[in-house]
Design a protein that fits this description.
Length: about 450
């Protein structure tokens, strides 16, 4: 088959599928047996790591995320592993030094990652430029990313300008990341068509099913010439997740542009994840079909399922609709950031605070202050003036999102002392454990104590 006619598939079930539908609560032990079948399907890549996986492994699963990655790598002989990183935020929630970014990327590649999809929550190119350069330095596939959103300050030129910067930086491919399912089918056609005319690198796309448009959006993107799309196996697809892999395969069977996957292997994978979805159903959100209100509220699937899970844990489920109403108001006040990690968590948490308190912004989180004051990067639009003034007044004494260029040395010394105080071997000499501590200092020590070291 002419490779230009073939559409590649990135299967996201073991990362974004689980994250969007089951709040990333599926442990490694429940995934290893299906990896050989996934490896036979013929995917362009398999997304296995990144996003919230690292956090969930150490916070909820008592599982070493690096061991998870190594296990995947040992069982995937034919399919490249792909991961999602947040530029200078990596898989954490603040900016890290270039040294930390370099070491994290090196260790990820050493343990099996071949393709790095890197994005910034604010689409600030300066926040992904260094990671793209480092991924190229270590000889892996650098995929620069547009975090797609709609607002009065975003238009086609916004995306074309960012895409050109990404290509000029040396990226191997470009991804359109539509985390809330906002990309409408005909807009997808226009966007992909313009990108194909402007760029020489391949174009990939991820779109969520939350608003009910994902299958049509994937179809129109393919018609416009896109090279690769993300899908999730049918039994763990739709609602907050993605269009089913088998659906796209069936739609384009025998067409001019074709998806070439092993249908028998897909059937085995689907049966497996049907049982997984049932086993971990307690973590699934309440959405059973389509949430068209997301066309206004723009809340991504993973954010919704995690928000519902948090509210349920605090017996506050009745607040979910109020929080959904508040989120777009906070987003506007904050200068229209795309709702993707970490901006989505910051906006969502602030919306929850606003609902819980008698006055909006009565309690302003440190993360909200840092976001509003540009510590995460340049916001797309203008900040609401009273909010900006309040953030400036509160900034004294809070921990800002500053980058410490001696971060590794400082945190290594800190971890060495903590290990000694808590009767643990010196983990500061293990770069993987040190990276875990740098990324998640508040929960890493509890995690280390649970490990059989």
């Amino acid at each position: 088959m002419d490779s230009s006619k073939q559409v590649g598939i990135t299967e996201v079930v073991v990362r974004d599928g689980i994250q969007s539908l089951l709040a990333t609560r599926v442990p490694l032990r429940d995934l290893v047996s299906i990896l050989p079948a996934l490896d036979k399907v013929g995917y362009w890549s398999l997304e296995t790591w990144g996003g919230a996986t690292y956090d969930a492994c150490i916070r909820y699963l008592n599982e070493d995320p690096w061991e998870r990655l190594r296990t995947f790598n040992s069982l995937l002989q034919n399919t490249p592993q792909q991961m999602l990183i947040r530029g200078q935020n990596l898989v954490g929630y603040k900016h890290y030094s270039n040294e930390v970014v370099s070491r994290f990327l090196e260790k990820s590649a050493e343990n099996g990652i071949e393709i790095f999809r890197t994005f910034d929550a604010l689409n600030d190119f300066d926040n992904i430029k260094y990671s793209i350069e480092e991924i190229k330095r270590i000889g892996k596939h650098a995929q620069g990313t547009i975090a797609y959103t709609t607002s009065p300050v975003h238009n086609l030129d916004t995306w074309l300008d960012l895409a050109k910067k990404i290509e000029d930086s040396g990226a191997d491919s470009l991804a359109i990341k539509d985390m809330a399912g906002l990309l409408r089918p005909f807009d997808a056609f226009d966007l992909v068509k313009n990108l194909k005319e402007s760029l020489s690198i391949p174009i990939h796309m991820q779109t969520h099913a939350t608003t009910g448009m994902s299958t049509a959006t994937n179809m129109k993107a393919i018609e416009a010439g896109i090279d690769n799309i993300d899908t999730s196996i049918s039994s763990l697809s739709m609602t907050y997740g993605h269009t089913a892999t088998e659906t796209m395969l069936a739609i384009f069977e025998g067409q001019n542009r074709e998806i070439n996957l092993d249908l028998n292997s897909l059937e085995e994978v689907s049966s497996f994840f049907k049982e997984i979805r049932e086993k971990y159903s307690e973590f699934e959100g309440s959405l059973k079909g389509v949430d068209s209100t997301m066309l206004v509220k723009q809340v991504p699937g993973g954010m919704l399922s995690n928000l519902e899970s948090q509210l349920k844990a605090n017996r506050q489920e009745d607040k979910i609709d109020l929080v959904k109403e508040e989120i777009p108001k906070v987003r506007k006040d904050f200068g229209y950031p795309p709702l993707v990690t970490p901006a989505s968590q910051i906006v969502g948490a602030q919306a929850l605070l606003n609902v819980m308190n008698s006055r909006r912004y009565e309690n302003l989180s440190n993360e909200s202050i840092n976001l509003v004051l540009g510590k995460y990067g340049k916001l797309p639009g203008d900040i609401e003036p009273e909010l900006l003034a309040k953030a400036k007044n509160k900034v004294a004494g809070i921990e800002e999102n500053n980058i410490d260029e001696k971060e590794i040395e400082k945190m290594s010394n800190e971890l060495e002392v903590l290990c000694k105080e808590n009767g643990l071997p010196d983990l500061s000499k293990n770069i993987e454990m040190l990276l875990t501590y740098i990324l998640f200092p508040n929960i890493a020590l509890s995690f280390f104590k649970e490990l059989d070291i």
